[in-house]
Amino acid sequence: MSIKITGLADIVRIHAASRPDAAAIVYEGRTTTYSALDRAASRVANGLVAEGIMPQTRIAHLDKSSDLFFELLFGIAKTNAVMVSVNWRLAAPEIQHIVNDAEAEILFVGAEYLAIVEKIRADLKAVRKIVILGDRHGAWESFATWRDRQALDDPLLPAQPQDTAIQFYTSGTTGLPKGAELTNANFAWMFPLWTKTWLLAPGVPNLVCLPMFHIGGAGWGTAGLYSGAVNHVVREFVPAQVLGLIERERLQVALLVPAMILFLVQAPQVRETDLSSLRLIVYGAAPIPADLLKQALNVFKCGFQQVYGLTETTGAITLLPPEDHDPADAKKLLSCGYAQAGVDLRIVGDDGTDLPPGKVGEIAVRSPQVMRRYWRLADATTRAIQGDWFMTGDAGYLDDKGYLYIHDRVKDMIVSGGENIYPAEVESAMFGHPDVADVAVIGVPDDRWGEAVKAVVVRKPGAGVTEGDLITWARERIAGYKLPKSVDFIEALPRNPTGKILKRELRLPYLGRQAAAGQLTALRLLSQTRLENPATRF
Q: Quick one: which of 262, 247, 215, 173 has its CA closest to 537?
C-alpha cells in the first residue's frame, strides 16, 4: 500500500479515513486502531495550540517506547511543530543539554524519569510546561487528563515538505550530540521506496523494539504505520520477552541492531521458541561479524536484509537483500549492499578526490533523504554537507559491482607502523572464536608503532580463553600486521542505547597521563551501560 503524504500527520488521517477499525498499535495488551490514533493525535494538537505552540516549535519527549509516543508524534505533526525525543539513558546534565539546545517549550516525561527532571527543572531554559506520561505529579498534569479535555476536531494546520518534522540528536559517540533536522520531504521520499522492500503492508504484524529517540525506532515504527501494518511496540528490549512476543503474536518483520541479534541468538530459550512466522529481519546500525550472521541465519531461518544509513540520511540508503545472504559467500555477507533509488555514493580520499573500486575512503552520500541541517550549527552543517554531498564520517569502499563495504568510522581507523587497520575486520576475525561472546578492537598509543591494536573481549560464561589463544586464532584469519598486540578481558562492552560500542570510553584507560581520570570515566560508563545479564536484557 502506498499513500501520498505532505506531512507526517497525513499518515494517520488517510488510514483513519480508509480503514478506521484496523489495528495500528499493540502495546502491553492495549490495542489502538487507526481512527483512535488519529483522534488522540487531534486532541494532542489542539492541546498544543491552546498552549500557544507555534509552527516549528520544538516539543520534547523523555520516556521509553510506548503507544503514547505515536499519539504525541502525530499530534505534534498536526500543529507543524517538531518532535524531539530525548535519550532516556543519558545522565541529567546530558538530558538538560538536549532539551535546552532544542529550546523545547513543552516536555512530556515518563513517570520513571521524574526524579531527573526535578533535578534539572530550574535549568530548563525554554520549558514552560511539563506533562507526565503517567499519573499527575504535584503541579504537573497527567497526559491522559490533559489530552482528554481537548477538542476532537483536526486543526488541519498546514505543513510544508521542507518543514522539519523530527529532530533526532546524534548518538554522541564522537562528541556532544547534534540535532539532525529531518523534514516531511525526507520521510515522504523514503517511505514509498522502503516499506515494500521491508514487506510492510496492511495488517502485517511488525516488531518495533528500538528506542524512539533513534531513527531506527521512530523511523521504523512510523514506516510501519505508513504502510498500514500493526506495530507491536516493546517498551524495552528484553530478549526473552521479545522471543515470546514473536511466537505469541506471530510477528512477521522486525528491525534489529547486531547487538540485539547477538543477545537473541544467545538466549537460552531461542531453540525452543516457534519463530516460523518470521519472514524478514532487517538489521543495521553497526558492523556485524560474519560468524554471528551465519548463526542468526541458522537460528531464525527467515530472510535477512542488511541496510546502511545514518540519522542524517533518514535511515537506510543501501540494501543487501535476502538473496545475497549466502553463508557460502563470506565476502558478500560483509557488504551492506548497494545504493537504493535516489541515492548516489562516492568514496572520497583524504585529498577530496574520488577513489576507485576497492580503495577505502570516506563515504559520501547524495539523496533526497539527507537531512535539512544540524540545528543551529551552521559550521557543522557546512562541514557535513558539501554541495549536494553529505560526508558520513564512515570509512568504506565500493566494489566493481557497486556493493558498499563499511570498515569503521573514519576516526576509528588505526594507523600502526604506517599501515591502516580497520577494527571491524579484526573484530570479525576474533568473534568467530567459540569462547568469545563480544569483542571490540581499538588503537592505543605505542612508542614503537604509533598505535597498537588492542582487543577488548567478553568471554562466554565459563570460558577460559586466554590472550594467546585469541591471537593465535586471529593469526590464521587476518594479516600479521592487523593482529592484536594485546587482549584485555571485560564483563561487558559499553554501548549506547542502540547497540553501538562506545570506543572512546574503551580508549580512555590507555591515554597515558589521562589514564587515571579515564579509568574512572570508563568504569562509571560501564556501570551505567553494561548488560545486567547479556542473555536476558539489552
A: 262
Ranges of CATH 3.30.300.30 domains, the chain: 413-529
What is the rounded distance in angstroms from the CA atom of residue 208 to the CA atom of residue 231? 6
Cell output for 441: 578492537
**What SS3 state is found at 486?**
strand
Q: Does residue 170 contact residue 380 with C-beta atoms inside 8 Å?
A: no
Other CB atoms within a 10 A radius of the CB of residue 229 amount to: 28
Instruction: Report yes or no: 336 and 288 within 8 Å, Cβ to Cβ.
Output: no
End-to-end, the C-alpha distance of the chain in Å comes to 33
- Report whether 21 contacts 31 (CB < 8 A): no
Sequence-separated contacts (24+) of 298-301 with Cβ below 8 Å: 299/264, 299/265, 299/270, 299/271, 299/275, 300/275, 301/275, 301/276
> What are φ and ψ of residue 199, in 5° steps?
65, 25
Q: Tell me the HSE value of 248 on the side-chain side, using a 13 A CA sphere.
A: 10
The amino acid occupying position 339 is A
Which tops the pLDDT comparison, 260 or 39?
39
- CATH number 3.40.50.12780 is the correct assignment for the domain at 1-227: yes
- Look-up: residue for cell 573484530? 427
Q: Which three cell numbers stand for residue 412?
A: 576509528
Express each pLDDT in 461-497 by its tens digit: 999 999 999 999 988 887 787 899 999 999 999 887 6
Instruction: Give the orientation angle of helix 423-431 with respect to helix 290-300, to 10 degrees.
Output: 50
Angstrom distance (rounded) from CA 385 to CA 371: 9
**Answer CATH for 413-529 from 3.40.30.10, 3.30.160.20, 1.10.760.10, 3.30.300.30:** 3.30.300.30
Q: Using the predicted structure, report yes or no on whether residue 431 has a pLDDT greater than 90.
A: no
344 contact partners, CB below 8 Å, separation of at least 6: 365, 366, 367
Tell me: pLDDT of 338 over 90.
yes
SS3 535: coil
- Return the closest-CA partner of residue 95 out of 118, 127, 140, 62: 62
User: 371 is written with which cell numbers?
Assistant: 537531512
